[in-house]
Amino acid sequence: xxxxxxxxxxxxxxxxxxxxxxxxxxxxxxxxxxxxxxxxxxxxxxxxxxxxxxxxxxxxxxxxxxxxxxxxxxxxxxxxxxxxxxxxxxxxxxxxxxxxxxxxxxxxxxxxxxxxxxxxxxxxxxxxxxxxxxxxxxxxxxxxxxxxxxxxxxxxxxxxxxxxxxxxxxxxxxxxxxxxxxxxxxxxxxxxxxxxxxxxxxxxxxxxxxxxxxxxxxxxxxxxxxxxxxxxxxxxxxxxxxxxxxxxxxxxxxxxxxxxxxxxxxxxxxx
Length: 271
Known about the structure:
Layout: H1 5-28, H2 34-47, H3 52-66, H4 72-92, H5 97-115, H6 122-134, H7 151-154, H8 157-168, H9 173-183, E1 194-197, H10 198-203, E2 206-208, E3 210-213, E4 216-219, H11 228-234, E5 239-244, H12 249-261
Helix pairs in contact: 1-2, 1-12, 2-3, 2-6, 3-4, 3-5, 4-5, 5-6, 6-8, 8-12
């Protein structure tokens, strides 16, 4: 199967941007918006020759995602106008309507995941939103897992990336589970938490789940509270329960490479 030049360029732009974002997330836990700006601009430009209407819709989605001024009533107007642009694209090119509809659908689904807490970080949500525009269709070359249509329209590349990343994020559970079984722990969170000396935990990329309230040890959720270790030391706690601090952009970037190079592994469910 042939690959046109614009798709080839976009392919490598996506890989480069996601790799850079993953490195930033791993090193600093901060991802500059320039990453998503690059993906959005490239998406709008590459879509323009095929569908000016869809390109305009993507530009409006990008504006909503990247501009802090597009909130409230402005956000409603921008999103509604964007949907009208995609609807126009479907009318002008009915054969490509599944692709044009899939872009705003995945964008809004990623936004809903963030609003409901299924995607914890704003950068994670922006990555998924940007990918919905950057790779609306599977690459046009031989893949290990070929897309099966019409099912592939219901699971576009950005959805495949997200699901693959979620599956990959479960891998660290295996050594944690083995570690807890070996130590004799059989309680809650035995596949996601383990204990470390407090001093080691404060130097490691982990979330400390224990806290001291009125001198009493309690278990809470992950927190950025810098005073937590001090309270635990004051309470005489020397070992704490922790969970790994895994930056989700790392599995997202790896999953992007898997889906773009090899295809959607979930296509095996459709034969």
